[in-house]
Structure formats: structure tokens, C-alpha cells
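fwd from M.: "can u put these together and see what the complex looks like"

so here's what she sent:
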Amino acid sequence: KAGVTQTPRYLIKTRGQQVTLSCSPISGHRSVSWYQQTPGQGLQFLFEYFSETQRNKGNFPGRFSGRQFSNSRSEMNVSTLELGDSALYLCASTLQGEHEQYFGPGTRLTVT
Amino acid sequence: QQQVKQSPQSLIVQKGGISIINCAYENTAFDYFPWYQQFPGKGPALLIAIRPDVSEKKEGRFTISFNKSAKQFSLHIMDSQPGDSATYFCAATFGGTSYGKLTFGQGTILTVHP
């Protein structure tokens, strides 16, 4: 089975712009979680989607949003980018009824 | 409290030695504790996980020890190899519809010298 894929792998944006990141889960996995990884804050949970519904949400401002499609693919959007949004954004997928989360390689976002 | 505290921040071990990384949690509702290994430029990879009803779990050279009363758990890497050099994260989550939300420790950078 193919693993979790994320596109694009690298992205450079300017402050004030918005960005959309994409995540394709492992086939058959319906839960997708998103995390932000920075050297200072470590790995922080953003949100989780299951069956096209946001099921859990972390402590991030409303500029961070996401959605999930009927094929379980998920996107996250960050509007009005700030320098502090520079990070590795990771998504992970989980099989329904299981606990194991499998991560993708991440999207490296740089905000200048 | 949702925090998971991990130590040490960095660890240097000689090849063949034992690497030990510790984590402590506060939320007694946590009931699933995975460990992840991350290499530079890659996403975290699930290494091993434990539930609180088990005090120890072993998979190959990797062992998790769990102390429910102390709210602590640790990862032991036996016969450490240079290829084990990576960043290790402990994590915790709790049940129902919240398994999709992992709370991570700050990470431990492990260096294994040949």
C-alpha cells in the first residue's frame, strides 16, 4: 500500500498571502490529522477530520482551517500568513477503529 | 493538563550501548502511548506503542516500560546502532473520538557513535 502523500513538499510564500496544503491518506484510512512542527514548539496538533467532519481541533487561530473530501483526501489552508507560520506541516492518517497514526513526509512552508 | 514532558533533549550513546528516553504525563485520561522516530527530512514513523494495562512491551531492540502510578513511560533501545541516530518523540492520546489527537513530547535527539 502506498503511504501518506503530501503536496507540495516545499513552499515559499510571502507574509499576508494564503496557502493550501494537500494530504492523501493511506487507502482505506478515513481519519486525517494535521500537525505543525517547529524547532521551538515541537509537534503541535492542528485538527483532525473524519468522514468529511472536523472531529478534533487544536489551539490554533482561525487563520488555520481544513477540510476533507469524500475520498478522504484532506486540505489545510492558512490565510494571512505570518512569519511564525514557517514550519513543517505534517498530516497523518488512521484506520477507523485503530489508534496508529501514519505520517506523511510533510510540507515545508517558508514565509518571507 | 495535556502536557507530555520528555527527557533528555539530547543523548549520545556508543554503538552497542543502551539508549533510554523518558516521558512523563499529567492527564490520567491518556490511554495510548506511541513512540515515533524521525529522520531529517522525513515525517515521524511509528516505532512502538503501549496501553496502560501493560507494564512492558518489546519489539526487537525496542522496549517500552510503563509505570501507571508514576505516570511515566520510557523507551529503551538495546544494542544501539549508528542507524538509530534520529529524533525520538513520545506521545499520548485518549480514547473515544480523540485518538486522532496526539500530544507530543519535545523530542530527544539521539546520536549513536560507531
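replying to her w this: The CA atoms of residues 38 and 44 of chain A lie 9 Å apart.
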